[in-house]
Write a structure and sequence with these properties.
mainly alpha
């Protein structure tokens, strides 16, 4: 295996090693939170600790960031490897610069989304992050299966990343921390 093959395995390896376990933890915490609320609704005393809701929120933030990060990584490999392979820098230097700036701006928008507290700024940064993902995915180097979108890894990945972005944007920020 050469360096290109190793870099190609980075996106799925991070997804399997980091994102999938987080999905399981978030689902478990959401189930516990629901069970606790149902028990409280019935007037029962719950044995489930009250921190499961805040744990669900905190781990959900980790999941959202990791899904968006894996999506950006999954877009970066085909874009940059094919740009280098086809020597696009010599042919279209402005597009290469645009794509590089777009990666930086999309990543910065996601970071600012985590830090934003007002609804307006959360909406702005969520929109900018989502637009960045879609613009990066629209590059000709990305394989999309446009005519078979319902089987496309690209479309499901972008849909999952957009759902994660907007889930971070709609949660009211109080004083949470992701420790």
């Amino acid at each position: 295996m050469d360096l290109k093959d190793t870099l190609a395995l980075l996106h799925p390896a991070i997804a399997i090693a980091f994102v999938f376990p987080l999905i399981g933890i978030v689902i478990n915490r959401s189930w516990l939170t629901r069970q606790r609320r149902l028990q409280a609704l019935n007037g029962e005393k719950s044995k489930i600790p009250p921190v499961v809701g805040s744990e669900h929120l905190a781990i959900g933030y980790w999941l959202s960031g990791s899904v968006v990060g894996v999506a950006l990584l999954g877009l970066a490999f085909p874009i940059f490897s094919k740009m280098i392979e086809r020597d696009i820098l010599a042919q279209e230097p402005m597009r290469v610069a645009f794509v590089m700036i777009l990666f930086v701006v999309t990543t910065a928008s996601m970071v600012f989304l985590y830090r934003a507290t007002t609804k307006l700024w959360r909406g702005i940064f969520a929109t900018l992050t989502g637009m960045g993902l879609i613009l990066l995915g629209s590059q000709p180097e990305v394989f999309r299966r446009d005519r078979e979108w319902f089987f496309s890894h690209y479309y499901y990945g972008i849909a999952a990343a957009l759902l994660m972005i907007f889930s971070v944007a709609i949660v009211q920020k109080r004083h949470w921390s992701v420790n």
